[in-house]
Request: fold
Amino acid sequence: MGFLGPNNGDDANEDGHDAGGDRKDMTELDKYWKAVRDTPQDFTGWTYLLQYVEQENDLIAAREAFDAFFKCYPYCYGYWKKYADLEKKNIFIDRCQEVFERGVAAIPLSVDLWQHYISFFRTQYPGPEYEEKTRSLHERSVQSAGLEFRSDRLWEIYIQYEIDCKKPRNAMEIYDRLISTPTQLYSHHFEKFEEFVRDNLPKDILSAEEFLVLRMEYLKNQKASAPTSDDASAEGEQNKKSADSSSTNDDAKTENDAKKEEEEASAIRDKIIELRRVKHKANEEEVSRRWNFEEGIKRPYFHVKPLERTQLKNWRDYLDFEVENGSHERVVILYERCLIACALYEDLWLRYAKYMEAFGEDGPRSVYDRACSIHLPQKPNIHLARASYEEKSGNFSKAIEALNFLEKMFPTYLPAKFRRLGLVRRTGKREDVEALFKKYIDAATSPSIASLYAIKLARYRFKVCGDIEGSKRILNTAIENDKVRFRFMFD
Reply:
């Protein structure tokens, strides 16, 4: 979780823009930097630093501060927005877009951040030549955050965009996806869908295949309910009698055709809604099963303040439910949502990594990477779990790397050293085991710690190597170096 401090202006403004003038009052800036360098986990210290660089409108200093902050706290959506706004304020549009891209990569489930990004993009690039790029951005937003229970607004603005672009068939395809997606406003979406269907011709919103199928079904039903031959003869006689008024006949025919077309369109619309209502009802059931859990989520965003116990219990119960009843995709989304609000809770990261083990190596490794390097670098258990996972996967070098990192963070943390000794012992390289024991004994901070290592080394020599005499020599040396401890043990 290392980060850079201020570069004292060594980096010229690469964009050639005067964004902050002389960088005055560097002493004050250094004070804020010192606070976060000394204690990177001091969230309040970071907020003071960011407030200061924003007030000074020193873009170089602001970039350094925001970039360093996000290495520690990437889930703070509001600060990604502040960073993007700062670039936009200083007329660095490309930089602003780059910040948004980094933000949605760091926190892809942030509905608010996606909304701000889309709004920015559509404001900056409003022309029809950017239609496909805008559509692609909308699609990315629902691909990334569309399964978030509160993602309703993302779906709505995507649908409205397609309607504004005169692409009702595209809007229909999005509605088809949304109708089967459990979200907070699922019922409202179906009502809007019904209005959309009523306001458009079926041929304009359906694929050619579906439209033809529904039309053929309608015509088949019409034919089955057509008048009998006697009725048809009577109708023909009536038409013959009225044939004299030829001038009005064409108008009546046109009106009659229009009426038939409207009846056909209305019937097909009803069928469209009827077919989708089945999906809507199934979706309603899924929403109802999750509603109480969703109601129990009072703080879905990241904060350093501890969550209430009831909140944590709700998340754990919700995860249990989704693992048992939901798809893998929904389970992953829920874990990711949970770990935004619960990013500082080690047990939930461990639980997520354990769940992902059933789906290949990349998933657990990604979970451990984020937990160990960003959110929980000061939590020993997550590093030990990561080392165990890598060893179990046969990746000894990564396991040792994880333990090395832990030893650097906590030089006196004995469980990490013992875990590393065990790991090296299981490789079967005795000379490496002996060398590591010697290193730890020589670097021991007290005779009692050195004796602890010596006892374990003697046992290794005796049990694994079968070297009884060597084991005795190690113990005798330890007794000489730590007579107080051994006298107490033997008394």
About this structure: The chain has a mean pLDDT of 89. The CA atoms of residues 159 and 174 lie 7 Å apart. Residues 246-295 form the longest helix (50 residues).
